[in-house]
Amino acid sequence: MRYTCLISLCLLLVFTLRGFADGPKDNVPDNVRSVPPLGIELDAETNEFLTDELQKLQTKIAALRSRKHEIAAELLPDVEIFSRAVRDSLAHRELFAKGDIAKAKQVLATGHERADALSRGEAPWTTQTGLVVRGFRSRIDDTVQPYGLVIPDSYAFHGPVEHRLDLWFHGRGERSVETQFIFERMNKVGRYAPADTIVLHPFGRYSNAFKFAGEIDVLEALQHAKTQYRIDEDRISVRGFSMGGAGCWQMAVHYPGMFFAANPGAGFSETPEFLRTFQGETLQPTWYERKLWQMYDCTGYAGNLRNLPTIAYSGEIDRQKQAADMMEAALRQERIRLTHVIGPQTAHTIHPDSMEVIERKMDSLAEMGRDVLPRVVDFTTYSLRYNRSFWVTITGMKQHWEKARVIAALQQHGDGVLLQLEGINALHLEMPAGHCSFNPRYAAKIEILDGPRREVQKGEVVKQELYGPRPESDRSWSCDLYRENGQWKLGKKEPTGLRKRHGLQGPIDDAFMDRFVIVKPSGKANHAAVNAWSQSEMQRMIDQWRKQFRGDAIVRLDSEVTAEDIEHSNLILFGDPSSNQVIKDIVDKLPIEWSAEQLSIGDKTFDAAHHAPVMIYPNPQNPQRYVVLNSGFTYREYAYLNNARQVPKLPDWAVIDLRQPADALWPGKVVEAGFFDESWKLGDADY
Question: Given 437, 459, 490, which residue is the final one in a domain?
């Protein structure tokens, strides 16, 4: 007993010290360490060997690309991931220990094996069980991104049987860039490998808690895996531990209709309380930062777990138990009791007994599978970026970053739906073929209670009754509703101008969750300070996109932007109307006035000699895509030190005073900032 207690005490000390390693010394914005750190300097012989092998692999890849063979083109990312990983390791000193040299050699060797096989028209890894690393080309920036798989021995590569798939999100690893990630996925099964289950390990574009481009990486990796393996759509789960637990919480509450279960462990579930308790950080957020926390603070979305079975795990003496405690309290407010498995006297790891309990529960839930058509859907959001749960999609909000909630219930006795709505202006309901139980002879009855929940309980809400379309003969049903002048109507409201919608709702960071092109100015800005600042911010974005989101940004001169770029990409414009031709072409259609003398937004005017705008707005040349002025993703170097800090720092627009130099927190002094309203018009800066 004394020995067991001593071990527990030592583990507590180790993980407490590890926790405080992210503590006060990482709370100094003026002294930010590099993430990832600078790696070791290779000796000449090792560098020559790795460089030579890399060049040989790149030559093979070029030859495969030139063949333009359909199968080779489809599978080329499975080879390119090895080349790109080592390329970046060498170019940016991202081998951090001597052991990483051996990892790089194995990564290159596997790349050669695959290139040679593909040149013969073979792809043995596509029918391989066990540990397999695959790659896909991301739509965001055309880079190849890796992911790992565990393919069970029971998987049959021919036949109708579909398999359960578990997404497993890795923990924080500042040194786990591509080479290290790929090596680990070739050599380690991971914490869980359930029987007859495919386990998918997303890279998540490095260390961002599977947010922003990391979030899209998960979705793209899953979609790619679906094209390669037979996966049961109704038996996909989301799981993770530590930083991966944080990623699991956010994916679960934002995409509750995708999974049959969620299993988060440790991590964090919101920003402010975690940073106060775990990081010991004194927070002084701006009003818009508080608003923007609602993008990833899972506590505000806790009610969404009503429709997603969730098994949380924490070590009893793990400081990151705080994440599940916060969610437990938030769920209690929703009258939901969280299943919280706690490892006895356990620090930051998963207790073996707890693993058994969790696996039994997950297996039981997998047998049941996802409920395709829950009788009640309860869904909350603060942004149309996250707007869907099962058969309910919110298509219009009264005001972004304020709570929007729908409780949609199939009538217990009847052919219709009861809707309880808050903060919503438009809604789409859709039941897939074979799932609508309404009588096909009659119009569906739709009863609406429009108002906050507290007012519904008091009977102080607008009540309305409509009759929607009849079900179709395949037992599918869909219906659109919109609110106008306080009344709900059937159908879609015809747009009379710009509207915020899913994928076109801001803030600035949203532009980097889809394909984007950086547009480089070919001229000089009107003022030296603006010219120097915009050039610096552009280069910073290019450098940090590679470093933090592991991508190669697509860069064009303003004179090189194509019609295809305008049609398919968000344009990230740096400079001013004098230096950047694209800005010049559209500036009179943006909600600003920007001349050589002054910059005006709303009723505020600034000296253009030392002020510049950052902004996101629908592209006047293609309102289905964004333009962004003078900004990359808005969190900066200070946020790299703790994943809970990696949240949007700026809203839809801001004015920057360039007389205050850019630093690890801000691009300069933010003198004004705000959100556009639902029509992309200027509103009050503080709502």
Answer: 490
Looking at 463-467, 573-577, 683-687, which range is the least confident one? Answer: 683-687
Q: Are residues 462 and 516 in the same domain?
A: no
Q: Please check the confidence at residue 21 and state whether its pLDDT lies above 80.
A: no
**Does residue 171 lie within any of the structural domains?**
no
Q: What is the pLDDT of residues 183-216, one digit of tens each?
A: 999 999 999 999 999 999 999 999 999 999 999 9
Domain membership of residue 384 (yes or no) is no
Residue 1 CB neighbour total at 10 angstroms: 5
User: Max CA-CA distance within the chain?
Assistant: 80
d(CA 93, CA 355): 38
Cβ(221)–Cβ(77) below 8 Å: no
Query: What element of type H or E holds 203?
Result: none
- Co-location of 474 and 524 in the same domain: no
Residue 627 maps to a domain: yes
* First-residue to last-residue Cα distance in the chain: 60
Note if the bond before 661 is cis, omega within 30 degrees.
no
Radius of gyration of the chain (CA): 26
Token pair for residue 504? 């076109």
Please, what is the average pLDDT of the chain?
A: 94
Region 642-654: what's the mean pLDDT?
Answer: 98
Same domain, 528 and 624: yes
- pLDDT at residue 4 is higher than 80: no
Residue 328's alpha-carbon distances to 221, 302, 305, 349, in angstroms, are: 30, 9, 11, 20
- 426 is in which domain, residue-wise? 401-490
Q: Where are the beta strands (DSSP E) in 310-375?
A: 311-315, 339-343
Q: Are 212 and 633 in contact (CB under 8 A)?
A: yes
**pLDDT reading at 16 higher than 90:** no
Q: Does one domain contain both 486 and 559?
A: no
Residues 516, 652: one domain? yes
Other C-beta atoms closer than 10 Å to the C-beta of 657 total 15
Residue 379 corresponds to which amino acid? F
Report whether 77 contacts 137 (CB < 8 A): yes
At position 305, the amino acid (one-letter code) is L
Tell me, yes or no, whether 479 and 516 share the same domain. Answer: no
Give the model's confidence band at 1: pLDDT under 50 very low, under 70 low, under 90 confident, else very high. Answer: very low
How many other CB atoms sit within 10 Å of the CB of residue 99? 10
Same domain, 415 and 516: no
The bridge status of strand 611-619 relative to strand 622-629 is antiparallel
List, for residues 262-305, the tens digit of each pLDDT value: 999 999 999 999 999 999 999 999 999 999 999 999 999 999 99
In a shared domain, residues 444 and 515: no
State how many domains the chain has: 2
CB 149 within 8 A of CB 200: yes
Domain end marker among 459, 490, 521? 490
Q: Sort 488 into a burial class: Cβ within 10 Å, 0-12 / 13-18 / 19+.
A: buried
Instruction: Provide the pLDDT confidence category of residue 452 given band limits of 50, 70 and 90.
Output: confident
What is the reported pTM? 0.95
Phi, psi (deg, nearest 5) at residue 457: -65, -30
Binned at pLDDT 50, 70 and 90, residue 15 comes out as very low
Residue 540 lies in a domain: yes
pLDDT in tens, 67-107: 877 788 899 999 999 999 999 999 999 999 999 999 999 99
Q: Burial, 61: exposed, middle or buried (Cβ in 10 Å; 0-12, 13-18, 19+)?
A: buried
